[in-house]
Amino acid sequence: MSRTIFCTFLQREAEGLDFQLYPGEIGKRIFNQISKEAWGQWMSKQTMLINEKKLSTMNPKDRKLLEQEMVKFLFEGQDIHIEGYTPPEK
Question: How far is 41 from 20, CA to CA, in rounded Å?
Answer without folding.
Answer: 17
